[in-house]
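The pair is set out directly below:
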Amino acid sequence: MNKSYQDLNILIVDDDEFQVDFVSDLLKELGVTKITAANGGQKGLAAFDRALIKPDVLLCDIQMPDIDGFEFMSAMGERKFTGGVILMSGQGSRVLHSASLVAQLSRQNFLGNIAKPVSKEDLKEKIQQIL
């Protein structure tokens, strides 16, 4: 696939604005320039549906008040999203494990889980898989 970080289109979906900014900054440090951020699941779906160029990678929080990460994954499955999916959570490994199963069941190209606080190394390792 020979893409670089600069070529990637990434959508971040998280209801916590601090997290969105934090993860955006980490991605920029890796060289990612095309970042769309959505504050919560509803806005994430709207941003995805509006995007003319669909994201290569979706970074999604699991615990969100309106649509949680599980519902978001099934919505992505319905939309036949083929990009990579990385799930983020501050909820510990059991929640992350369940989420990874859901992502795999909805036929997502699942790149892995990242526990919050997100580290640049974790992001790099997961994103590397689709470059």
About this structure: The radius of gyration is 13 Å. The CA atoms of residues 23 and 118 lie 7 Å apart.
